Amino acid sequence: MKLDLNLLRVFVAIYETRNITAAAASLNVSQPAASAALARLRDAFSDPLFVRAPLGMEPTPRSQSIIDKVKQVLESIDQDILSQQVFVPQQATDEFVFCMTAIAEYVFLPRLFAVLKKHAPLTRIRSLSLSPPDLIESFQGGKVDLAIGFYPDLVSADIYQQRLFSHNLVCVLRKEHPITGKQMTLDAFQNSGHVDVRDGSRTSEMFEEILVDRKIKRNIVLTTSHYMSIPRIIAESDLIAVVPLIVAKIFASTYNLRLISLPIELPGYDLKQYWHRKYHHDQRLLWLRSLIQSEFSDAYVSDLLRDMGTDSCSDNPIVQVHL
């Protein structure tokens, strides 16, 4: 037997009011609609369910036997299925799974951990590194909540994205490096020994494409797959490296390095957060995305760069990063 759930709501309303007109009013439907619903119920159960009496519609034994179960079913549907689930950060024990580029993890993860521990102290964090195809598959399966970083190839009708902030590239070198001034000349850029980071990020690939397009060659003498090896290499040599501005600022403030502008103009790179459309209305992810958007915005980067203000070009044109 298949029943429209609205028929069961009419059944409960009549049982509680003992009156079809009152039941209709409580459900905000017309009296004829309630009478029609009762007729369908009687047919489905092969029982009159209610009979007229001096004090109203009296339930039959069949109605008496099923009323509690019907109420339980409707209550379960209303509370567990139809009600909007509310995410309570302070009580949540979830594990938030992120996919981040190496740069994004270096910039985001320390502060992200601190922010989440403040607002959702019982939650845990896991950070993964996945290729775009693997990431899309993990998104669909709910294995990754958000991706954060520069993913220009993460394009799909099923993937939503939101810009957080933009960054640019800059040269980093030791403080006593022979190259001086606020902006590196093209000759100095091409003749200097470079440390090249090949970590698989699209930022590095797109920078290389720009150099090839403009017929600019670098003298790469050392190649590494990790940004974290850059600071000591630069501090102990006359090599230079091209890195994102915000990362370079962290390096400079920690390892006493110097920043200098590139001799060419480059577009800004947007760092974004990405998620799957299947979870667009999920309450926990709505909260998480909102938190990240508020904490990691243009203002955050501006404050971070200002707070890290070393003598590494505070008045340098490199701070014309797209914020």
Automatic annotation (TrEMBL):
One Pfam assignment? LysR_substrate
Spell out the molecular function terms from Gene Ontology. Answer: DNA binding; DNA-binding transcription factor activity
Q: Say if the entry is tagged with keyword Ubl conjugation.
A: no
Q: Which residues form the HTH lysR-type domain?
A: 3-60
Keyword list (alphabetical) reads: DNA-binding, Transcription, Transcription regulation
Q: Per its UniProt record, what Gene3D superfamilies does this chain match? A: Periplasmic binding protein-like II, Winged helix-like DNA-binding domain superfamily/Winged helix DNA-binding domain
By its UniProt entry, which CDD domains does this protein fall under? PBP2_DntR_NahR_LinR_like
Any keyword Transcription?
yes
Coiled-coil segments:
none
Q: Which family does it belong to?
A: Belongs to the LysR transcriptional regulatory family.
What is the protein name stated in its UniProt record?
DNA-binding transcriptional regulator, LysR family
Native source species = Paraburkholderia steynii
